[in-house]
């Protein structure tokens, strides 16, 4: 057997693994885990919306810490981290072989899947590290991490441009997420024919409301990064926690933060719908 046939055989085995029931289960478990994280972040944001509210950080680290405080919290974190790792593997299979749908094999779609695979791999690593006892990993402050990264980048040659372009990319991604949610682009990824009318209404409510809220958070975080680049001040950068808190500093007071927080909870519920109805 020559090397070419061995390579072809290996590719065939990898493709079969990517299309297996196990990979489908990994992807669906990942959507469940993503939903848990967003629901918890949204609830934490609701707590900090008003004076005297809970001061826990409203980001992934805060969600992880919240789970850790519950009975069997460490075991739950192990389950959550493994489920997120399943999402990373599923996204990696999409990057390598294309996802479900007629246009999911395009290079751009596969590149986006690769980026998501890297992101979810990092999330899985941070959650599992926290479960293993590294409290400075999954439970770390997103605000401090963002400022540390920005400070390092600003010290590089052309650092202001790097941070500014990065912020513009994040802000653009947020607007893209929100617009696609409002246009209900997620329909093409879901098994709509298997939904009842009420379920579809719930999917559309959580998908539009949740996607718009999630996109708004990303867009605001990107805007803060752009401000940090322009003013050459890393402290201007905000992670998810400070970005959410900034919504309470608008003229409408805490009510915008309440709306965004409820939207993040809705996106978590939408993720659970994806776990059931997503074309995987």
Q: Specify the structural class.
A: mainly alpha
Residue runs with pLDDT of under 50 for 5 or more positions: none
Number of helices: 10
How many strands in all?
0
Mean pLDDT: 87
Radius of gyration equals: 20 Å
Query: What is the end-to-end distance?
Result: 34 Å
What does this structure look like?
Residues 29-97, 113-184, 209-278 form the DUF1206 domain. This is DUF1206 domain-containing protein. Keywords: Membrane, Transmembrane, Transmembrane helix. It comes from Streptomyces pakalii. The chain crosses the membrane at residues 31-52, 72-92, 113-132, 161-182, 203-230, 252-273. The chain has 280 residues and is mostly helical. Helices cover 73% and strands 0% of the residues. 43% of the residues are buried. The model has no long low-confidence stretch (mean pLDDT 87).
Q: What's the helix and strand layout?
A:
Blueprint: H1 3-18, H2 21-47, H3 60-68, H4 73-97, H5 107-131, H6 142-154, H7 159-182, H8 197-231, H9 240-246, H10 255-277
Keywords: Membrane, Transmembrane, Transmembrane helix
Organism: Streptomyces pakalii
Protein name: DUF1206 domain-containing protein
Keywords summarizing the entry:
single chain; 280 residues; mainly alpha; 10 helices; globular; transmembrane helix; DUF1206; DUF1206 domain-containing protein
In short:
The protein has helices spanning 3-18, 21-47, 60-68, 73-97, 107-131, 142-154, 159-182, 197-231, 240-246, 255-277. The chain is mainly α and 280 residues long. This is DUF1206 domain-containing protein.
């Amino acid at each position: 057997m020559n090397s070419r046939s061995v390579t072809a055989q290996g590719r065939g085995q990898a493709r079969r693994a990517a299309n297996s029931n196990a990979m489908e289960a990994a992807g669906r478990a990942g959507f469940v885990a993503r939903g848990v994280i967003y629901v918890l972040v949204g609830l934490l944001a609701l707590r900090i919306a008003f004076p005297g509210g809970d001061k826990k950080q409203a980001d992934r680290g805060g969600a992880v810490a919240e789970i850790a405080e519950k009975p069997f919290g460490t075991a739950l974190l192990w389950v959550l981290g493994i489920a997120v790792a399943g999402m990373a593997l599923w996204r990696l299979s999409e990057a390598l072989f294309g996802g479900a749908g007629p246009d999911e094999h395009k290079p751009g779609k596969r590149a986006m899947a690769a980026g998501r695979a890297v992101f979810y791999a990092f999330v899985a690593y941070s959650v599992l590290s926290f479960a293993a006892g590294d409290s400075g990993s999954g439970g770390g402050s997103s605000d401090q991490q963002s400022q540390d990264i920005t400070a390092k980048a600003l010290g590089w040659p052309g650092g202001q441009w790097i941070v500014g372009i990065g912020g513009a990319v994040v802000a653009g991604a947020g607007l893209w997420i929100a617009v696609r949610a409002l246009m209900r682009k997620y329909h093409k990824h879901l098994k709509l024919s298997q939904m009842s009318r009420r379920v579809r209404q719930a999917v559309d409510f959580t998908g539009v409301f949740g996607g718009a809220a999630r996109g708004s958070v990303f867009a605001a975080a990107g805007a803060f990064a752009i401000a940090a680049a322009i003013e050459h001040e890393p402290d201007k950068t905000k992670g998810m926690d400070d970005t959410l808190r900034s919504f309470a500093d608008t003229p409408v007071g805490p009510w915008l933060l309440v709306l965004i927080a409820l939207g993040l909870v809705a996106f978590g519920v939408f993720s659970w719908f994806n776990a059931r109805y997503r074309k995987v």
